[in-house]
Structure formats: structure tokens, C-alpha cells
Amino acid sequence: MENKSKHSPAKITLPPVRIAVLVDGGFFIKRYNAVFNEKRAMTGRQVAHELYKIAHKHVGRQNILYRIFYYDCVPFEKKMTNPISGKLIDFKKTEEYKFRMDLFKELKQRRKVALRLGTLKDHRKWEIFPRALAELLKGKKNIKDLVPEDVHVSLQQKGIDMKIGVDIASLALKHFVDRIVLISGDSDFVPAAKLARREGIDFVLDPMGAHIDDGLFEHIDGLENSIKSRVYKK
Hints:
The longest helix is centred in the N-terminal third of the chain and has 16 residues, at 44-59. The chain has helices spanning 25-36, 44-59, 95-108, 130-137, 160-173, 190-198; strands spanning 18-24, 64-73, 79-81, 88-90, 113-128, 151-158, 179-183, 202-206, 222-223. It is an alpha/beta fold.
């Protein structure tokens, strides 16, 4: 009788992929708060820990983390008078300022994390938050009904988009990595993404459940949400 041995198909072992994770800090904090809707204030250490976990989730156990790049601005630290309350606010003593600085400190101490800091341009004026403005326009609220929390200082990030674009270009042209994962929801990255893809880099976007324009799909190689979008608030 002929002996027939059964051979299982040989497993193909793929080489590890070098991955860089780029995080738009302002976007990350906004989406993180929307996801978890924390009633208690999160510390810089807690958020740094969650960010680190999310980044490593994109890398996986079989691949290699090249570096985590975190982009944000030095928090606003001037003194300004709230036009509703008439109270002078020292922004350097606010909880938001303390949180951001604690977060930066924690990230600096993490292995393979590069902190890229831009600046905030102060327009020296206050603006009404969109929700309060909508209520004013619909007649649901009068000017006299505005509370101090309905307004905020008009600020603009400077240098963040440029830093992200330069790093994407550098990683791609020097072929330091095989894949770039960008945690953001902004379309400003498209020119840099095109360059990276032309260089053979696998470009993945993580919008953390936020809606992105349909036109962006043609400029990325994959869409991976680090957390299921159904837990997010619109």
C-alpha cells in the first residue's frame, strides 16, 4: 500500500515593517475627550499612557516602532480680561496650561517619542464659541445671557502643519520607515502623503472615529481607527 504523507502548507513569514506614528496633538486631545467624555480631569500621565498604547496598537508585536512624533503648541500663558465677567485671567495658572505641560513632560520621558512644538499666535481678541453663537443667531439667547464660558481667546497654531509635512517628507525620502501612520483629521497632509506614496511608503490615516472627506481616500493607502467610531460623540 502506498503511503501518502500529508504536508501542511508552509507558513510564509513576512519581514517586520518599520513604522512611524505621527500624532496631531490638538486633534488627538479633542477626539480623546469626545471618546471617553471623562467627568474627572485626566492627568498628563494618563493621557500620555493612552497615546502610547494607541500608537503601539498600530505597530503590533511583529513590527518595529521607528518613533512616535507628537505635534502640539506651547500653551497660551498670557493674562487677559474676560469680556463677560471682567475678570483678569492668568492663563499660565489654568488647569489647561498645567495639563499640557504635564503631558509634554511625560512624553519627553517615554522611549522613542519625539516632541515637536510649535507656537500659538495671539490675535488679542475674544470669540464666542460656535454653539453659543448659533443660539444667538437663532434667537434662543440674547447677548446679555452670555456667560464667561461662552467665549474664548482667539488663537492660531503656527508651524504644526509644516513640521508634520517636513517629517513625512524626510521619513519618506530617506526611507527610514516602510509605513507612516498619521493620527489626524486634517486634509493639509495630502501633499506630503502623495510624496510618501510615490516613494513607496504605505500611508495610513487614523482619524479616531472622526468623519473625513471622501476625497481623502484616494491619497491614503489605508484607514485604521484606533478606537471604534461608534463610541464617539459627534
